[in-house]
Structure formats: structure tokens, C-alpha cells
Amino acid sequence: MKKADGKQGKKKQQKSRGGYYFLGVVLAVYLVIFLFKPDEIPQSLMKSGLLCIRLLPAFGVVILFMGIVNYLVTPQAVSRYVGRGSGLKGWLLALATGILSHGPIYIWFPFLKELCDKGMTSGRAAVFLYSRAVKIPLLPVMVYYFGLMFTIVLQCWLIVASLVQGTLIEKLGIPIQDDSRNTRATPLQK
Q1: Burial class (CB in 10 A: 0-12, 13-18, 19+), 187
Q2: Using one digit for the tens of pLDDT, what is the confidence trace for 79-96?
Q3: CA distance 126 to 45
Q4: How large is the greatest C-alpha to C-alpha distance in the chain, in angstroms?
Q5: Does some domain include residue 91?
Q6: What's the number of domains the chain is made of?
Q7: pLDDT single digits (tens) 94-132
Q8: pLDDT over threshold 60, residue 4
Q9: Under 8 Å between Cβ of 99 and 158
């Protein structure tokens, strides 16, 4: 048991260093840019800062969703609605929520990961992500530019393809990666 704990500790330590490596690379790139074009650095930092400010509300919404999920949604409820035993209604729920979701896709990643940690299957997570390609507010614009028949066929194809992708991911047994930041002890570690 001690060897397994030691290996897990090393894995966690290696994963946690990834952020520092990325930060080091970014700082090195800024240093190289500073050496060749020092007047570009303030403009780059300004654009990065503005981007962070624009993303703050979206991250706030995700943190709110995750808080609500942690407080109100139990693993049993997630398993019942979008877990392995949820059947057709789980697939349809993942499909419908994916179609109705808005905003940048990367904002949904932590929320989906939280649901997967509580029992959502990887196939249903894939259906959610894939079905986001159906954009209800943009359908009239698509009909205007491409015609009604093309729009209907494409949207139907996207819906069918999302279900096929999710089924394939589930049949292949592709798991959602374990969260190494989770510091709670599992029953085996106690």
C-alpha cells in the first residue's frame, strides 16, 4: 500500500509542475519578444488583461454552476439522470442540454468534469459537447444563407452524429481522466 501511495504522490507532484513549466515557457517567450521588440510587450499585456477581464463573468457563471452542483446535486441523482443506468432518457437529456447550452465551449469543461466525477458517463459528456454544434439562435441565419433543406439535414446529421460519437466513446470504454487535484482519501488509501 505504501508503494502505491508513493507512486501516486510522485504523479500528483509531476502533474502539479505542469503549470509552472507553462508559466516558464510564457515568460521565456515574453523575454525573447522583449529583446527584439520591447515596445510590443505593453500592448500584449494590455490585450491579455482585457481578455482576462472579459472572461471573468463566464468563469463566475461556471463557478456558480459548480457550487450549485456540489450543493444540490448528489452522485445518485447524476447517475440516475445521465449515468450508466439512465438509458435513453440520459442520452436525450445530454443531447438537449448540449443543444440549449450557450457560451464558449471551454467554459463547460469544468462543469462537465464535475458531473462526470459524480457519475455522468463519458459517452453522455461527449454527446453534450458534440451537440453544442447545433446553434438554435443561428438557425434563421443558416436558413437564409444555405436554405431550409440544407439546414434541416445538417442539424439532423449533427444530432445523430453526436449520439453515434457518444455511443462509440462509451462502447470503447474511454474514461474521463481522474482528477489528480482531488486530495480526499479514497477508501483504499485510508
Answers
A1: exposed
A2: 788 888 888 999 999 999
A3: 35
A4: 65
A5: yes
A6: 1
A7: 999 899 887 788 888 888 888 888 889 999 999 999 999
A8: no
A9: no
User: Are 131 and 158 within 8 A, CB to CB?
Assistant: yes
Q: How many residues does the chain have?
A: 190
pLDDT tens figures, 40-50: 888 888 988 89
Q: How far apart are CA 82 and CA 122, in angstroms?
A: 10
Does the residue 10 lie in any domain?
no
Task: Judge contact between 166 and 106, C-beta under 8 A.
Answer: no
CA distance 169 to 165: 6
Is 28 within the bounds of a domain? no
Asked whether residue 20 is assigned to any structural domain, the reply reads no
* Domain carrying residue 76: 58-171
What's the one-letter identity of residue 44?
Answer: S
The answer to whether 96 touches 82, Cβ cutoff 8 Å, is no
Better-predicted residue by pLDDT, 10 or 31: 31
For residue 184, the SS3 value is coil
What are the residues whose beta carbons fall under 8 Å from the beta carbon of 75, sequence distance 6 or more? 118, 119
Q: Which of 158, 175, 40 shows the shortest CA–CA distance to 119?
A: 175
pTM over 0.90: no
**Which CA distances in Å does 92 have to 77, 125, 131?**
16, 12, 11
